[in-house]
Amino acid sequence: MYSSNIPNVKLGIISVSRDCFVISLSEGRRHAVAEAYRTRYGEIYDCPVTVESERDMASAVADVKAAGCNALVVFLGNFGPETPETQIAKYFDGPVMYCAAAEENTGVLTSERGDAYCGMLNCSYNLALRGQRAYIPENPVGTAEDIAEEIHNFVPVARAVIGLSKLKIITFGPRPADFFACNAPIKPLYDVGVEIEENSELDLLVSYREHEGDERIPAIIEEMKGELEVPDKMKGILPRLAQFECTLIDWAENHKGSREFVAFADKCWPAFQTEFKFCPCYVNSRLTSRGIPVACETDVYGALSEYIGWCVSENPVTLLDINNTVPRDMYEKHIKGYRQNETFMGFHCGNTSACLIKNPTMKYQLIMKRSLEPDGEPDITRGTIEGTIKDGDITFFRLQSTADASLKAYIAHGEVLPVEPCSFGGIGVFAIPEMGRFYRHVLIEKHFPHHGAVAFGHCGKYLFEVFKYLGIEDISYSRPANVLYPTENPFS
To answer: What is the pTM of this model?
Structure first.
């Protein structure tokens, strides 16, 4: 699935050659890599300039930029020139991957040995000397087919890095009271290339009122009716929701400024219901399904995480509370293959996109109604989208700033189980191997908030590389039973 709010990666490949090696060896190997990639995966621009010197480096970078490339593969077809090959990362404006050629057969060893296996060591050392970030795959040296596979793995990482470099997060209102876990120091956003625009809820309310009677509202209402079940008692809320959708879409377009991509982090309760007269959850879900994450409760780093997940998976994501335990009777009756403390329920009021929910239905927010509309039919608490989250593989993850403005992250593979959660909201029964230990020694130990981003499918290997590329040093993951966490008691 493609979204105009997610970057499209255009790859280029530059080969480098140490001037005491045969340049044709590097060029021929580059052509083979480009052809192997095209055959398997798609287009890649094969730069005709092979880099032996600094002047070659400048010419090659200018060439790939002119070709429209926004992500680059630097290929050591032989040992490679340490200075110009690492300067490429400095002068190219985008993510760069480094890889190298394996020797094809015994015949090349006598006169055309490339020694790129050795050259990658010096390349990585010089990248560190220059303080240049680069993507080096797990297996950076290989045949043309091997390298084509590694380039394919680079694309989701490049997409996220490009997206963040052009992203603006727009917020409305402060976090709700007693939601300190959603704190959002600004400096770490700048550290990873993200801009932020903070606004008052009043700014949003004024803009919302200006969109009353917007000519797009009837068409949006019809879209909503076709997307999910809207009971008769809910239909009266649709014009308000459509008006709000127009408001957010226009605000995004009018406030991008110098950036290309946008995500939102909005305060959504309790004053929202009394002044806007609805719950924004369904609208949030609709924008998120189109690649424009709208995180609730002004969760800036939740929005950031969702956007990264969208870039990596190219599919809708969601933001959920790591919410409640699975009751023993439900566990014993319906769940096999996991211990009970490896299961939990992921929940939110109704922000998960309809395409991720079984039988999505528009409803009202039960908890809010108790306090805001305790008597009679719901009105201002309508606007959630509810249902059971579809079962299948998921990745639970988050990039978060600590209170002292340092970045940390976690990643865990798991699944949504085919179990009816018997509750309200957008909710599912989740299982993560060794979740009990992960919960205690990562989520609690490292002070992560209750919100986690959810990508559908196992994409941890790409997220891990994105976080590494961004310079995140503290990346936690769900460890298997035989690998202790640093704070885990070995005698337990």
So the answer is: 0.95
